[in-house]
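To the wet lab folks,

You asked to see what we're planning to order before we commit. Fair enough. Below is the target structure as tokens, and below that is the sequence we designed to fit it. If anything looks off to you, flag it before the synthesis order goes out.
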């Protein structure tokens, strides 16, 4: 959906269907429902593990959780539209994907805004988040249940440290860095000083192997889970984005549940997210040694240089024009 006009047309078309669909919701309350979730992540990713081990059994009385990993049901970035059209029940979405529809979500995509996992939770649960959640519900028919922790994203390159040592954004000049395919992601790649290349997650391993890209950015657990360490030689600990995802469900499906079922499902989402968050945090610590054992160089660059460049590029960007007045200060104050 490339143009703003197309997105607006899509949103108004969806607003019409949402009304019609919600009328049938109550009748569905008695039946056991199927909750299909589509995600690019593998089934060994900690968010997936948490959903399988915690979420699925907790909702089993009234819902069958049916996850589809590795983008096997919907392509990365098309899940929200699928939910809005009534073709999918759940996804693990991102602020970058929501920013395609609602530009103000880009505030949560900016580098060096969230400080850590606890800060993400505080922001998600704060009233400042209410208008964002409401808009996703009203205009897209998507309910954001909880915030999931993906981790600190770092730059991960094919070149060895001897070939290219990266201490500042200037050292990434000309580096072809794969970033996921939305404007918000591409801008982050640019802000880091690299040449961002859009590509779906499921294509990254091969692109690194063949040299179609020089590198990618993801948290350490993802580098291991997706085996990117097999085809790269160094990780620069830029920590440029403490990355989050939202566990999302179709509002129509949610509205079809009884109040008790809604409470159970919400508690299951919270528990799974917390479980996944703790596991992911532990893995971020533990995997440094594993990656070193695999022969990768892992080192910290000049973090002030990265933080200063990324923050100033965001503040001067068109993205910042869509951020509600004073919100960045409120986020920083939490
Ligand atoms: C990625 O494409 O690099 C990314 O890390 C983006 C995240 O928002 C998230 O969707 C994730 O991929 C997938 O779930 C795969 O782990």
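Sequence we intend to order:
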């Amino acid at each position: 959906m490339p143009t703003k006009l197309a997105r607006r047309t899509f949103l108004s078309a969806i607003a019409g269907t949402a009304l019609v669909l919600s009328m049938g919701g109550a009748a569905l309350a008695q039946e056991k429902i199927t909750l299909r979730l589509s995600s690019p992540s593998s089934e060994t990713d900690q968010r997936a593990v948490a959903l399988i081990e915690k979420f699925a059994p907790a909702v089993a009385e009234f819902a069958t959780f049916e996850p589809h990993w590795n983008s096997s049901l919907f392509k990365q970035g098309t899940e929200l539209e699928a939910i809005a059209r009534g073709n999918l029940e759940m996804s693990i979405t991102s602020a970058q994907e929501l920013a395609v529809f609602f530009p103000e979500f880009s505030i949560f995509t900016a580098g060096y805004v969230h400080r850590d996992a606890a800060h993400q939770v505080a922001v998600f649960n704060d009233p400042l988040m209410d208008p964002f959640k409401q808009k996703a519900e009203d205009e897209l028919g998507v309910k954001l249940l909880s915030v999931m922790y993906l981790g600190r994203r770092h730059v991960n390159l094919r070149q060895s440290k001897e070939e290219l040592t990266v201490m500042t954004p200037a050292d990434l000049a000309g580096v072809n860095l794969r970033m996921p395919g939305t404007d918000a992601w591409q801008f982050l790649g640019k802000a880091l000083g690299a040449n961002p290349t859009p590509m779906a997650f499921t294509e990254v391993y091969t692109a690194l192997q063949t040299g179609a890209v020089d590198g990618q950015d993801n948290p350490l657990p993802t580098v291991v889970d997706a085996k990117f360490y097999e085809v790269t030689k160094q990780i620069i600990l830029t920590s440029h984005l403490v990355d989050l995802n939202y566990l999302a469900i179709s509002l129509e499906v949610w509205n079809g549940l009884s109040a008790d079922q809604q409470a159970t499902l919400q508690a299951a989402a919270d528990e799974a997210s917390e479980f996944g968050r703790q596991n992911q945090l532990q893995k971020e610590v533990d995997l440094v040694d594993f990656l070193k054992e695999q022969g990768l160089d892992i080192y910290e660059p000049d973090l002030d240089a990265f933080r200063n460049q990324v923050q100033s590029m965001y503040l001067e960007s068109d993205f910042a024009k869509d951020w509600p007045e004073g919100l960045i200060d409120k986020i920083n104050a939490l």
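Structural context that might help your review: Residues 2-149+244-276 form a domain with the D-Maltodextrin-Binding Protein; domain 2 fold (CATH 3.40.190.170). The chain has two domains: 2-149+244-276, 153-242+284-322.

Thanks,
Computational group
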